[in-house]
Design goal:
Structural class: alpha+beta
Radius of gyration: 23 Å
Largest sheet: 8 strands, mixed
Strand order of the largest sheet: 2-1-14-6-5-13-12-11
Oligomer: single chain
Number of strands: 16
Number of helices: 14
Shape: globular
Length: 421
Amino acid sequence: MNIRKFSAALISVCLLTACSDMNSEQNENTNVTTAFETAVTSAITTVETEAPVEMVTDDTMSVASETEHAVTENIHTYDFPPEFYKELNEIVESYRHFDYYDISMAYYDIETGLSLLINPDKHYFSASVMKAPYMLYIYRLALAGKADLEEKLVYTEDFKREGTGVLKDMEPDTEFTIEELIGYCLEESDNSAFAMLRKKFPEEGYTEYIKSLGVAHDDDSKAFNQPQICGETALILSKAIHDFIQEGNPYSENLHYHMTHSRNAMIYGSENSEVVRKYGWHGGYFHDMAIVYGERPYLLTIMTNLDLLEIEYREYCIFKDLSQLVARYSGTLAEKDNDGDVIIIKIPKMEEDEMTLPKDPYMLLSVLNMKLRDSYKSFEDLCEDMDADSAEITAAMEKLGYAYDEKVNQFAAVPEEKAQE
């Protein structure tokens, strides 16, 4: 097991008492344990105790200088078996993405109240994930008699939005019911349909509703102008959606149907499970927020910021590997008394002075462009400072169809006609 990442660096595993309404308050008697020393004693035998241990307090994140203050023997809790953490470590080690990019996961066991959060304090642009709580808000208005889902709205050129969706290719002056537009938003992630519904049901009401759920961060209650999401917020929103579906109200089945037919699924459940989800994708931000109904229902959100990385199948595998890991072990939680504990795992990115150029060509491309954008005025400067072989890098990039463009100080795709010369 990689001690640099999973203990000395540090991943801290924190057992917290969480309120049943998923708010952000924390019990004063917070129990904190070093990475896997209590939860996974059989999976790791050597822990570097001199490294600072990150602790979670009621208000701020602080650092404890003495490890003994952070170590507890809390055995009265639900927890995954040691094998889960061993496999999680293997996934982290298999993806260099964890070294360079932000990746978070938020898990909540509906039956026990146990939460497991990986990098929960990282905020991401929420992209289209937030369409799901917005549609929930509209359904809540309908239940209160403040929205008529059979009302028809007219699609015009003013509402045409690029990106995902099908309305943009339809003829103007087409009429849609509000229920139909909700379906397009949740199933197709339709940006034009969303624009129509936002005009009909302004953001101010949505923001108030989201804050009423207990979202602690103001930016997490926005619908546009850089709305944010983090692990804590993801669980609050997912739980609100789950509760709505479980109510069995006149619109529960509608929301359930739309979200089980959402395209571009990235989170997997077990073979016989049903997954209610909403994905988001914008400018390098890739997320999927899901409720997995199986032998043991749970909430799961995976959030990433892969930045300039070339997005292809290998990147989606992060979602597959993490979600399948959870699916395999979700029914094996230790059956002990539980107070809604929270396990927090922090996987820090490499410090700038630790970073070396990766061998994987796609990761290399991404890191090169990131460094050229942020730290170097030219490829020559980068190679000189990092003692890198420019010819070797150039050859590797050529195999991918990329070449250095000094005008933009980036490695850019070579036009197909030029590559054939």
